[in-house]
Design a protein that fits this description.
Blueprint lengths: L1 E4 L5 H12 L6 H12 L9 E6 L2 E15 L2 E13 L8 H15 L4 E5 L3 H5 L4 E2 L2 E9 L8 E4 L2 H16 L10 H11 L2 E7 L2 E10 L3 E9 L5 H15 L4 E7 L8 E7 L2 E5 L3 E3 L2 E3 L2 H8 L13
Parallel strand pairs: 4-5, 11-12
Antiparallel strand pairs: 1-2, 2-3, 3-4, 5-14, 6-14, 7-12, 7-13, 8-9, 9-10, 10-11, 15-16
Helix pairs in contact: 1-2
């Protein structure tokens, strides 16, 4: 078995591998589109960040490293995301993913990355690499169609026209949380533009004062992200967005899910926890005069009601 990074001429083969493993051996154009876009629309992607285990000319397993910065207590921290961890069924149990993950961790150390973040359900596997799970609460509310009238102007987002205002709101609002992604304009134009599906903006005297990204599923509406300017009532704007979305959807009642750091006046009908985010310290760093040099110190910083990761940035 050969362990190395992906060659550019192997990109289509790598896409085929990801589709095969993640879609249980069945071809899917939408899966292929997803993995392809997550590479070509990522302004920080390179082939040296895709690690593969090769059995001759066949990709047996892969791990991809995503380069990001995140906010921690207002400071920008270098972060490496782990994704696309996948092994073909016939090669499982051979330690391929373990070796590839160690390669990715070594690469992060070489690049002086401070923190690593991944999303997983196999927590015990990643615990072996010192990743620790942090659960975050999720609010679930029910909104009836045409239930309330809010005196707030809301319209569909015109991405190119509204981008500057949305970027400024994101920078002001989301930078107050821990683990939100630092976004450059290039990242907005490429990654975010492709990741959002539905979006609304709220206005006051034709000035954008808030925005929301959301996905409409078969049973629930997932709020992908939200932001507003400082001098407005957050819950009022958020609830106005929810009501507007509920009115658009051809359902008598709509169920919304969103991180509990966002407050709503609609009563919760259910509560849940996101059990996917796992963090690991890679290289020690200083934060507000304190040295973060152990996993536990990192977890202590993160494990507060300020922890937030918008699903727009998911990988």
């Amino acid at each position: 078995m050969e362990y190395r990074t992906l060659n550019p001429n192997e990109f289509n083969q790598w896409l085929d591998h990801c589709v095969y493993v993640f879609n249980e051996g069945k071809y899917s154009e939408s899966f292929r589109y997803y993995f392809k876009n997550h590479f070509i629309n990522d302004p920080y992607a390179d082939f040296d960040s895709i690690f593969v285990a090769m059995d001759g000319e066949e990709i047996a397993a892969t791990v991809r490293l995503f380069y990001r910065d995140i906010y921690l207590n207002g400071k920008k921290i270098k972060t490496g995301g782990i994704g696309e961890v996948s092994t073909k069924p016939q090669y499982r149990g051979m330690g391929l993913a373990t070796n590839l993950l160690n390669m990715a961790i070594n690469k992060m150390e070489e690049k002086s990355i401070n923190v690593s973040l991944l999303f997983a359900s196999r927590h015990t596997f990643y615990n072996m690499f010192d990743y620790q799970l942090i659960e975050t609460p999720i609010n679930i509310v029910e909104v009836n169609k045409d239930q309330k009238i809010f005196d707030i102007q809301i319209r569909d987002t015109e991405f190119s026209w509204d981008l500057k205002d949305i970027m400024n709101i994101y920078e002001t609002y989301s930078s107050k949380f821990n683990s939100t992604v630092v976004r450059t304009e290039d990242y907005w134009q490429n990654w975010v533009r492709q990741e959002y599906r539905n979006s609304l903006v709220a206005l006051d005297n034709n000035k954008i004062i808030g925005y929301i990204f959301y996905d409409v599923g078969n049973e629930r509406v997932n709020i992908k992200e939200f932001g507003f300017i400082d001098n407005v009532d957050k819950s009022l704007i958020f609830d106005a967005f929810l009501q507007n979305i509920a009115n658009k959807i051809e359902r008598e009642k709509s169920i919304f899910t969103f991180p509990s750091v966002i407050k709503s006046n609609y009563a919760s009908v259910e509560s849940d926890f996101d059990k996917s985010k796992m963090y690991r310290l890679v290289k020690s760093f200083e934060l507000n005069g304190k040295l973060i040099d152990t996993n536990q110190k990192l977890i202590d910083v993160l494990k507060t009601d300020k922890l937030l990761f918008w699903s727009t940035d998911g990988y």
